[in-house]
Amino acid sequence: MKKILIGLVVLFAGIQFVPVERTNPPVTQAIDAPPAVQAILDRSCADCHSNQTRWPWYSRVAPASWLVAKDVREGREKLNFSEFGDYPERRQRHKVSEVLEEVEHGEMPLKPYLLIHRDAKVSEPEIETLRAWVAVAGEAPRGEEEGESHES
Ligand code: HEC
């Protein structure tokens, strides 16, 4: 029993040396959204979808750090509000529409993140705010745009 415990402690200490990337690269072209929308994105999404991640203390402790870094890496890859203006317009509109879809379906923010960041939940009135924004800045409703593709 004691040997197992010592083994675990050594293992825990050892994995702390695995390098984890916790970078906040420069903001190149931040998204240009109305302030009410911006506030929602900043609060609920920016930790994984921007270059301005607020890295929490547990992002410095393995193995939690691996999970946090993975979410941030994959989140930025799919959608990065700090580089949003660099996307072609078509992609921007597609992503804006996806934002609403993900939030409406309760897919975003990710569930484990919500457990720790309860205030990140997007409320019903906030979803209305997103809807109004997406109606203007999102994709045209299906069928109205010729030859539309749904690349992500
Ligand atoms: C804890 C990190 C985290 C937070 C917070 C978060 N996301 Fe994500 N998001 C991810 C990850 C990881 C992916 C890629 C994997 C996936 O689709 O599940 C992703 C994917 C997405 C996608 C792309 C889906 C696709 O298929 O291309 C959209 C859109 C999105 N998130 C919107 C949001 C919005 C809007 C918020 C805030 C309301 C948000 N996310 C909050 C981690 C996060």
What are the main properties of this structure?
binds heme C; 7 helices; 152 residues; 52% helix; mainly alpha; single chain
Q: Mean pLDDT across all residues, rounded?
A: 94
Number of domains: 1
Structural class: mainly alpha
What binds here, in terms of ligands, is: heme C
Number of strands: 0
**CA(first)-CA(last) distance:** 51 Å
- Give the H and E element order: HHHHHHH
Number of helical segments?
A: 7
Q: What is the 3D form? A: elongated
C-alpha Rg (nearest Å): 19 Å
Q: Provide the low-confidence segments as ranges.
A: none
Helix proportion of residues, in percent? Answer: 40-55%
Q: Tell me about the biggest sheet?
A: none
Strand content: under 5%
Description of the structure:
The chain is mainly α and 152 residues long. The chain has one domain. 52% of the residues lie in helices and 0% in strands. It is built from 7 helices and no strands. It has helices spanning 2-15, 35-44, 46-49, 64-78, 89-104, 111-116, 124-137. Helix 5 runs antiparallel to helix 7. Heme C binds next to helix 3, helix 4 and helix 5.
Concise description?
The protein is mainly α and 152 residues long. Helices cover 52% and strands 0% of the residues. Heme C is lined by residues 44-45, 47-49, 71, 74-75, 78-79, 98-99, 102-103, 108-110, 113, 122, 152.
SSE order and pairing:
Blueprint: H1 2-15, H2 35-44, H3 46-49, H4 64-78, H5 89-104, H6 111-116, H7 124-137
